[in-house]
Design goal:
The protein is 82% helix and 0% strand. With 384 residues, the protein is mostly helical. Helix 10 packs parallel to helix 13, helix 12 packs antiparallel against helix 14 and helix 12 crosses helix 15.
């Protein structure tokens, strides 16, 4: 086994473990808090606090990693500290203590995904267009966990996720020890992180923010919307599974996609499909139509996510690769989704899910128009 093959295997296992843990936390941790008797405001505050901490400390750790060339050391440290701090959730059911634990756990959990993306770009080297195949391990883990955890929760109660997340976190931390050391760079190059502060990067991050903002209503109220349409839990689960399966399909064939299309082209197509997807959800009621719209997750999330990672890697200078990925994750999956969650929650009782999806379509349209327009100007300027 070559060193490169071994490194890719370790990286694939990290994606599998990270998103496997996410498959336990994202659908079920709030349910656990609800069973503890927390109010909707308390649950929302925990989620919002976690999001803010993840945004701030993802950037903090990434700046340190790029400045002192210590990405591997910080990644391992944050893995072990976040795993250890998660154990504290087993010791209390008090809201205020859980809020404190959420803050400290988030401080160390924050940079993990951004560092993984930066590691992936480095390990893949000239084969970066194969990123999707590696990232697919995370989506596989998520769908397996989501579909299989229900029986365990029925048998042992939702609190079991605390122990399972703890176990998964420790396995991820131990596997992280196998990461190779990064190739040292000229320390004088560390000041080039300022190259990220360009109109091109700023505009891309703004448009990506709008794209993820448009997903806020979907992640918050899609299941509730299906329930109000009269669909049962089985169909709701199937609809989510279709979306993740479509996402995996896109990732497995990403190499072909990016050999044929430029990153900018894939991003523009993703915006266009998002406009159609959210507009469709605002009116669709039949099972066939809803499942067909779920299949477009392959483009609105799968293709968009991969193109974003590759695009920001291409724009970031060597000394700011980690910070570039952290900024992308913070602005999109951090700030974008957080804003989408907040606005959707504030508007839901006034306009309902259909109205939210219609607004989401308009937000995606705005992002697509701005990005496509700027890309066309850049292309013309280069041609001239």
């Amino acid at each position: 086994m070559t060193a490169n093959t071994r490194n890719r295997g370790i990286l694939g296992s990290q994606y599998f473990l990270y998103f496997g843990v996410m498959g336990m936390h994202l659908p079920f941790f709030n349910l656990y808090c609800y069973e503890l008797g927390f109010s909707g405001l308390q649950i929302g505050t925990l989620s919002a606090t976690r999001s803010v901490v993840l945004i701030l400390f993802s950037l903090f750790w990434s700046l340190l990693a790029d400045r002192f060339q210590t990405r591997r050391g910080i990644y391992i440290l944050c893995n072990f500290f976040s795993a250890a701090l998660w154990a504290l959730f087993l010791l209390t059911a008090n809201y205020w203590w859980m809020l404190v634990i959420t803050i400290f756990h988030g401080m160390f959990f924050a940079p993990l995904i951004a560092f993984l993306e930066a590691f992936a770009m480095e390990v893949l080297g000239r084969d970066k267009k194969r990123y999707g195949r590696m990232r697919a391990w995370g989506s596989v883990a998520f769908i397996v966990v989501v579909l299989s955890l229900g029986r365990a929760i029925d048998a042992y109660g939702v609190k079991i996720i605390l122990s399972l997340i703890l176990a998964g976190s420790w396995v991820q931390a131990l596997v992280a020890l196998g990461f190779p050391r990064s190739t040292p760079r000229d320390r004088q190059d560390s000041a080039r992180w300022r190259a990220l502060l360009t109109p091109r990067v700023t505009l891309f991050l703004f448009c990506a923010f709008l794209m993820l903002l448009s997903h806020g209503a979907y992640y918050t109220f899609f299941s509730i919307h299906l329930s109000t349409l009269g669909y049962d839990s089985f169909f709701i689960g199937i609809s989510w599974a279709v979306a993740v399966a479509a996402e995996i399909f896109a990732m497995l064939f990403s190499e072909r996609l990016f050999k044929r299309l430029r990153y900018e082209t894939v991003l523009i197509i993703s915006f266009a499909v998002a406009v159609l997807r959210w507009a469709g959800l605002s009116g669709a009621e039949s099972a066939a139509a809803l499942l067909a719209l779920q299949a477009t997750h392959a483009i609105t999330y799968g293709a968009f996510h991969m193109a974003s990672i590759l695009y920001i890697d291409a724009l970031a200078p060597p000394a700011a690769k980690t910070l570039g990925q952290a900024a992308n994750n913070a602005v999109t999956y951090g700030l974008g989704l957080m804003t989408g969650f907040f606005l959707s929650g504030a508007l839901y009782h006034h306009i309902g899910a259909r109205g939210l999806f219609a607004i989401s379509s308009g937000v995606a349209l705005l992002g697509g128009i701005v990005f496509a327009g700027y890309s066309a100007l850049q292309k013309n300027a280069t041609a001239n």
